[in-house]
Design a protein that fits this description.
Order of helices and strands: HHHHHHHHEHEHEHEHHEHEHEHEEEHH
Radius of gyration: 23 Å
Number of helices: 18
Strand content: 5-15%
Strand order of the largest sheet: 7-6-5-4-3-2-1-8-9-10
CATH architecture of the largest domain: Alpha-Beta Barrel
Structural class: alpha/beta
Shape: globular
Distance between the termini: 42 Å
Helix content: 40-55%
CATH superfamily of the largest domain: Aldolase class I
CATH class of the largest domain: Alpha Beta
Number of strands: 10
Number of domains: 3
Length: about 475
Amino acid sequence: MEVGYSFDRARLITKFDQLVSADELKHLGPVAKNIALDFSLDPFIKQRDIAKKYSLSSEELAKINDQLSNSPLIRDMVINHGPASAYWANTILPLYSSKHFQSVLDNEFVFPQLVGLHIGMSCMFRCHFCPRNHDVTYDHELAEQSLRLVKSLFDQSPKDHPNWQTRFGISGGHEPLTNPYLGDMIDYGSDLGYKIRIYSNGYMLTPKILSKKSGLLRASAIRISMYGVDEDSYDHNTQTKKGWQVVSKNIPDSLSYIKSAGSSTKLGLNWIVLPGQAHLVKQLMGRVREWNQHGNGIGFVTLREDYSPDQSELINEEKSLLLETFDWIQREQAKGNLNDTVIDYGYALNPLACGFNDFGPIKKARPQIYNNKGYPQLSVQVDPRGDVNVFHAGYQDKPGAAKYHIGNLNIEPDLATIVKDHLRSDQHYTFDDHDEEFMDSFDHAVQLIIDQMHDDAEFGIPWSRRFTN
């Protein structure tokens, strides 16, 4: 069995020819078509590399970018149907239109676009792929303090950009439902207009908890991270007995309770396709079909390839199996057998959903190009102690995480002050391979885009003359 991804460009050309009219392709010419293919394959390709490949000047390439950007058919193919479409649609284009991303490039202050609230006190699972320190928990006396901190963040957060309502998500290395004030936090934020997402392992998500912490029923969504499809797979991944027994009962019970309570909260699932477990995806979707008989059913499923540094890539046989599985899922959706469940395949698995089984693994940035201040304008994480961290370093007492700490809300006036002081400071990070532990797939994408933007500008093609702008 081998790991290898020699992409078949001919397959992509065939898809291009099917979706883009012959007249449009003739009008653009062969060089422009090939450049569009390059964008479809690699959204992080640099302009100087394209220019060198086709012997173009920066101005000649900028004109071709303009042509491609002004072609609705080309844009649709690259953004919605190519192997890298999840990068384009979910991250790159939203960042292009965001003042937050421009502020990162200019090292200027803007209030963080995303704030992760890591307010769990502990976790009952010990998942072998989880980056948290499994040997530590928060003192439960911090729970009440975390409520005050979260309320303060809700109060101070400006409502000055189109997506301000979705700024806050509650997740973290520990299980959020272990915080006794979680329902109060959701209530308070919802009163201010926020649409708050909760990421949970589902172990404590029972009708009793939903009734006791009624604010949970005002969350926009509750996403349950699934770690198996039966007792054996759950025990292996979580190292916790009865995990499957508890979670598999909680899901249909909670679906029924949410509907009976008249709540619009969506209950969804997240599944990481670990190496050697590709065959479980079809079983997972079988469970989804069963659970869709309860309440309003499963609202969404997010499927992800594991990006943690110590995990191996999916082998070719697994890629082929997933290609078949995703085709089966799409046929089941067409038949109406999965109700209205939305499937999100993420960056790495989306090529398979588009029919490309030889596309490479998730794209990662090299430590040498990481932004040396992080990008708190885009996202920060806050823990129960009030510590504010950049990247995904909000893991209690995890070795190496302390260097990403940029301030504390109990010491400094507010989050805006912390971010401003950090951007003005002389603090600059240096990175090595170990730091990859604190980056998720979004972090890698952002780092690659920042590096690409700086290089393109040096080459003579500004942001405004790139494809899609």
